[in-house]
Design brief:
The protein is an all-alpha fold. About 70% of the residues lie in helices and about 0% in strands.
């Protein structure tokens, strides 16, 4: 039997304890994990977190980007309370959201239910419904402005054809401008939320529909008692995303109406844009942005609480 001499034993490398080896392996895995997520954290910190912190600081200052930011405390928020244009923009934002959210949910869910069936050319129709969401907002606005033309637009021509002698002025009318924007916004967004509902419909067990059909449930009963309960997580996600995006509506209104006629379509995001980039009142615009931020946060928290209460 071979024996190990004292010289060979001294030359052999010392054995690493298992605990120390596991610690090194854990440290290496941690470093590898951080190397993957660190670029994203850096981008989030530089492009999102730091601007948010600066925004909250600017909301308490008077700054026009050229001079020094003077600390004025709550003066910007007190000014917002007395600003008539700000109040109008809040009401218009809520008006747009109240119309846009349920209408988009109904249309996108209806499309998803229709295109969830095995139809000939279903892939084409899904693509056609999603296409407006990825189309240039400027192109969408130009086309719809032509369609809504009071005198020569195809929409009013059709309304006159069916017997409506005085069709709406649409984008030239303070009463009809916001509904017109809601129609375009719903048409543009329905494809994206249709995809989300389609994904949710794929998770509905087919056995539940078969059991309900055997029990004599009709199409509407199966939709209410089977499909909708299974779609609750998707519906909650869609509602939250729609609410936030509706509160932040900016580009469509900017291109279609620029807040007009008058201030009938002026929304919070455009109010912030005007005060900040057109009038160089960055402190005041930041205060309005903070107000919009807290509006979104409060509504989202209420939606989470309502959803949690329904789930109990």
């Amino acid at each position: 039997m071979a024996t190990i001499t004292a010289t060979e034993a001294a030359a052999a490398p010392p054995s690493v304890p298992p605990r120390r080896r596991r610690s090194k392996l854990r440290l290496r895995n941690t470093l590898i994990g951080w190397s993957f997520i660190l670029p994203n954290f850096i981008g989030f910190g530089v492009l999102t977190l730091v601007p948010i912190v600066v925004l909250f600081y600017m909301a308490f200052t008077n700054w026009n980007v050229f001079g020094k930011a003077d600390w004025i405390g709550l003066a910007n928020f007190e000014r917002l309370i007395g600003d008539g244009s700000f109040r109008i923009s809040v009401v218009n934002t809520l008006y747009y959201s109240v119309l846009h959210i349920p209408l988009t949910i109904v249309v996108s869910l209806g499309l998803a239910l229709l295109l969830n069936n095995k139809l000939r050319g279903v892939a084409f129709f899904r693509t056609a419904a999603f296409f407006p969401y990825i189309t240039s907002i400027v192109a969408i606005a130009v086309v719809w402005n032509l369609l809504f033309s009071p005198e020569f637009g195809p929409i009013n021509e059709f309304l006159r054809f069916i017997g409506i002698q005085n069709p709406p002025g649409w984008l030239t009318s303070p009463e009809w401008a916001m509904p017109a924007v809601v129609i375009v916004g719903t048409w543009r967004d329905m494809g994206y939320y249709m995809i989300l509902f389609l994904a949710g419909l794929q998770t509905v067990p087919r056995e539940l529909h078969e059991a309900a059909r055997v029990d004599g449930a009709g199409v509407w009963q199966r939709f209410v008692n089977v499909t909708l309960p299974c779609l609750r997580p998707t519906m909650f996600f869609v509602t939250v995303m729609l609410t936030i995006n509706s509160f932040k509506i900016f580009d469509l209104i900017l291109v279609m109406t620029d807040g007009g006629p008058g201030q009938s379509t002026l929304v919070l995001s455009q109010f912030i844009y005007r005060k900040g980039f057109e009038e160089s009142q960055f402190g005041y615009a930041s205060a309005a942005a903070v107000a919009l931020f807290f509006m979104c946060i409060i509504v989202t928290i209420l939606q989470f609480l309502w959803n949690k209460k329904r789930s109990i």
